[in-house]
UniProtKB/TrEMBL annotation:
Residues 142-285 form the AAA+ ATPase domain. It comes from the Bacteria. This is Stage III sporulation protein AA. InterPro entries: AAA+_ATPase, P-loop_NTPase, Spore_III_AA_AAA+_ATPase. Keywords: ATP-binding, Nucleotide-binding. It holds the Pfam family Spore_III_AA.
Length: 296
């Protein structure tokens, strides 16, 4: 059964019941489920918004998500323990079981969100993609670290997951720092058991802490991280480079020009941890490399 159904089951009825009626052929293409207060529910598929009612004509509750019901959805997705997700919510999202990220919008004050006006449920799937020959050759020759760059929805996590699988198949020692539980899609190791990938995973651990722990005791050849961007991330990468670690990581960046214009990304590149950058195409072709830039 497609992961879509696991996500919608986390919602309260009757909306959950209606969304579970979606045809499996359509469900497998749904990337996101968007819920907005006093507006219709939408699917995102192929990077485009589609009203849920288009595929669920008999459904009533998808026609308009009431404000009070949206609050109920938020609380149930949080398992009625909002405080447990405070750190992630401060960044505008939280991640539920299975690596599914829930984007949150609304009125926010110092203590957190007081009103929720939008929820965006991203369906996490164990997807991999084809690696271009230059990427495989780059990894085989041990040419250095690789930075994967792209806009949101361009398949950065999918690409990194494919790199982990490739290195696992070549018997390299790999540590994955999966801060949000999205990269390896598991809080309890079940994804690894289901799809055996020979690597060591730190889940729900900050990248800075995970990198430090991996350096102390796991002796990896590669460390893989999703979405670098903070000063603490850059400092941790610098320590890893000093220890001879090769990093494979992703960043939010859609062009070589932006890579140098954004101060934090420029500092990240200046660490010397990355010898090349693979820019991904975009939402229409997730995981496809459109440009390869050498930094050395």
């Amino acid at each position: 059964m497609d992961e879509y159904y696991s996500v919608v089951k986390a919602l309260p009825p009757p909306l959950s019941d209606e969304l579970q009626m979606l045809d499996p052929a359509v469900a497998s293409k749904v990337q996101e489920i968007r819920l907005r207060a006093e507006q219709p529910a939408y699917f995102t598929a192929g990077g485009k918004l589609i009203p849920c009612v288009q595929y669920l004509p008999a459904a009533k509750h998808v026609m308009c998500i009431r404000k009070t019901f949206l609050q109920d959805c938020f609380l149930q997705l949080c398992r009625y323990s909002v405080y447990a997700y405070e750190e992630e919510l401060s960044q505008g999202f939280f991640t539920i079981r299975g690596g599914n990220r829930i984007g949150v919008a609304g009125h926010r004050c110092t203590g957190g969100f007081t009103t929720i006006t939008s929820l965006n449920l991203r369906v996490a799937r164990w997807l991999t993609c084809d690696l271009p020959a230059p990427v495989c050759e780059y990894l085989t020759t041990g040419s250095g670290g690789l930075l994967v760059a792209g806009a949101p929805g361009s398949g950065k996590t999918t690409f990194l997951r494919t790199l982990v699988r490739y290195l696992s198949d070549t018997d390299e020692i790999v540590c994955v720092v999966d801060e949000r539980g999205e990269l390896m899609m598991s809080d309890d190791g079940q994804a690894q058991q289901r799809l055996p990938v020979c690597c060591d995973v730190y889940t729900r651990c900050s990248k800075a802490e995970g990198i430090q722990m991996a350096l102390r005791c796991m002796n990896p050849r590669y460390i893989v991280c999703d979405e670098l961007g903070t000063t603490a991330d850059t400092a941790a990468v610098e320590r890893g480079v000093a220890s001879g670690i090769c990093f494979l990581a992703s960043v939010h960046c859609d062009s070589p020009q932006a890579l140098q214009k954004k101060p934090q990304l420029a500092r990240l590149c200046a660490t010397g941890a990355f010898s090349a950058v693979a820019f991904l195409d975009g939402r229409q072709s997730p995981g496809r490399v459109s440009q390869w830039i050498s930094l050395s």
